[in-house]
Amino acid sequence: MNRAILSLLDLLASLFRRAGVDYYQLRAIVDVKLTMDNRRSRTTLGGQEKKDNNWGFLATLGITLLMASGIALLVFFLPSPMAAYSVVAAYTIVVITMILITDFSQVILDSSDNAIILARPVSDKTLFASRLVHAAVYLLQLTLACILPSVFVTLVKYGILPGFVLLLAGLISTFLALIATTIFYLLILRFASPERMQNIINTVQIVVVFAIMGGYQVVLRMYNFGAIFDNPALLTFAWWHYFLPPLWVGYVMEAAVSRTFSVHAAACIFLLLSVPAAAIWAINSGLLQNFGSHVGSMDTASKEPETPSATNQSLSERLAPFFTRTATERGSFEMVWKITSRDRKFKLRVYPSMAYFAIIGPLLLLNKSITGFDQFMDVARESDFTKFMMIYLSSLIIASVNQNVVFSEQFKAAWVYHMTSLSTPGEILNGRMWAMFVKFMIPVYIFLGVVISYVWGVGSLADVAFGAMVGLIFQQVELLTFRNALPFTREFTKNSGGQFVRLLAMTIFVGILGWIHWALSQTSYVIPVLLLLALGLVLFLNKEIRRLGWEKVAV
């Protein structure tokens, strides 16, 4: 596979040379990176090396292809080619942009090879181009998975020419998303310090992922797609269409299908070709200046040392005594709290999912028939079951947190756990559980309590408290039943399987719990009594978790 990729890269050698890139150095670097991707292995605490396989990525491609097949049906059934192909292009750009935002900084700003490359006569342009090509190889496969179903439907319905135009336009759109994200990272890299740059990128990544995940939910509820099926003429040109790349593809495909080229189609063709070219010129002309030195300084950047003070305790140090009993539990509580506050990759994996759950509740009630806030409140009060779904969907946040708290880039340092004389690692697991519950779940349930008491009345606070106890008990039972990894002892890999299936199973189980809670709440005073019993069960399970031995720790 690598030979085929490098052979395709050889066809573009002259373009790289014209841009001032040393192609032989570029090819050698890309060859090594692709080889290392296939050979990457991880070492467990038991000293065994496990080689990552490619099945996880193939599964991702399969899921992407399946979802794209559903989008491709719009090409077949939607009477307006402009609308259908705009949706196809938007889907492709959104998928690629989410991957760029979440993963691209780890490629273009990767400093792991600085000790080798920066010590050799490799120019900034060559170094940057190698990382851009490395990312493009990965994105090309995902782009084809997104666009090929629509290309196949286009070939069947409209012929060869529109199918070829769609494939070309889809690749250009993906390249445009790649270039736009690149310019964003380079601007931050040039005008911000390395430490501040990492914080800015992390914040923007979280905001963009949240906006993409929540935005499509809102858009689907804003537009009446049924009317478009009945009357395609509703899609008329507007000046702001020139600012939306998916619509560029839509107008170009409409021209390719109808064989009539309007002024708008010509303008969109010009934008598709000229904007990426102008962006490449901007990158090559000045943004790459001192790229290597900026990336090299990322690992050496450090903050001014802080003087510890006995009187100024952190929030985790103040809260730990209230939720832990032993020194080991307290140490685990504070360690997990502080590391999750500093680990950017942890925040990038967890915070978007928290924000996504925050908008799911209101969207359960949002539909086209609601025209104002008062009507929205009336609909909410009539849907008592929605209250319980909001409570129990929020409990999935702690599941996402617990899945990610075991991962770390410094996972090999986990040998420290085994060098201690601790006979009951359950204390570490218990401290981890309480740190995550206090830090992430209590604020969520406080927010839910305010919203639900405003909508459904103060009497619903007992339901919120009982839902919180049920979520906590569920986590305790999981700790007691399964083998669990200690905090920050695993290497995070995209090929780690089973997490999606596990989360899906938990979602179904949470829905069942919400239905049972709703059924029990139909009888007066049942929930307050069960709340007291749940509190007692939490305290009992807490003691049992402390007694867990090493046989319950996954190595």
What is the fold's blueprint, element by element?
Layout: H1 2-10, H2 13-18, H3 23-39, E1 41-43, E2 49-51, H4 55-77, H5 81-108, H6 114-117, H7 124-157, H8 160-191, H9 194-222, H10 225-230, H11 245-258, H12 263-287, H13 291-296, H14 315-323, H15 327-342, H16 344-365, H17 373-382, H18 384-394, H19 396-404, H20 415-418, H21 426-456, H22 461-481, H23 499-520, H24 526-546
Antiparallel strand pairs: 1-2
How would you characterize the overall build of this protein?
It is a single chain. With 555 residues, the chain is mainly alpha-helical. The chain is 74% helix and 1% strand. A hairpin with a 5-residue loop joins strand 1 and strand 2. Helix 8 packs parallel to helix 12.
Task: Write a brief structural summary.
The protein contains 24 helices and two strands.
Essential attributes:
single chain, 555 residues, mainly alpha, two-stranded antiparallel sheet, 2 strands, 1% strand
Radius of gyration (Å): 27 Å
Report the sheet with the most strands, covering strand number, pairing sense and barrel closure: 2 strands, antiparallel
How far is the N terminus from the C terminus?
34 Å
Q: Helix segment count?
A: 24
Structural class assignment: mainly alpha
Report mean pLDDT, rounded to a whole number.
77
The helix content, as a percent range, equals over 70%
Strand portion:
under 5%
Order of helices and strands: HHHEEHHHHHHHHHHHHHHHHHHHHH
- Low-confidence segments, given as residue ranges, are 40-53, 300-305, 494-498
